[in-house]
Amino acid sequence: MDFTDRLDEFEPNNRMVRSWIASSGMRLSLVFAMKSHFGLLSLVHAVVVRSRIKGVATTEEEAFRRVRQSNPGLMICSDQLEQGDGFSLCRRAIQEVSDLKVLMVLTSDGSHF
Fold it and tell me: Has residue 94 been placed in a domain?
């Protein structure tokens, strides 16, 4: 489906998003881990309150260190990282921070799993 002609309909409903976050009880601190520098830049620019960002990393070890230091409420990561992988990072991070919410962005075709 081509959404190009409907881009104006993709404006975020900020009130709804804020309400969902407030009702979730989730801590509003974030860690991002991605191989893509462009992806990381996009995520950072999407966050209005920069102080909520507790880590931005491209490797598993860097991201895990930030998770341990900051106890974030949400980690957004990709399956592929410059070193390590997102799946391993998610397992380790959830063991470290039991109530951590994770959003995994799949960037591979899955043929090597």
Answer: yes
Residue-wise burial string across 17-43, b where 16 or more C-beta atoms lie within 10 A, e elsewhere:
eeeeeeeeeebebbbbbbbbeebbeeb
In a domain, 60, yes or no: yes
Whether the Cβ atoms of residue 62 and residue 70 lie closer than 8 Å to each other: no
Strand order in the sheet with 30-33: 53-57, 30-33, 74-78, 101-105
Structural domain span for residue 53: 27-105
DSSP, res 50: G
Residues 58-113 pLDDT 10s: 999 999 999 999 999 999 999 999 999 999 999 999 999 999 999 999 986 655 54
Reported as type and span, the H/E element at residue 43 is helix 37-46
Whether residue 21 is contained in a domain is answered as: no
pLDDT value of position 62: 97
The DSSP element (H or E) to which 7 belongs, if any, is none
In a domain, 8, yes or no: no
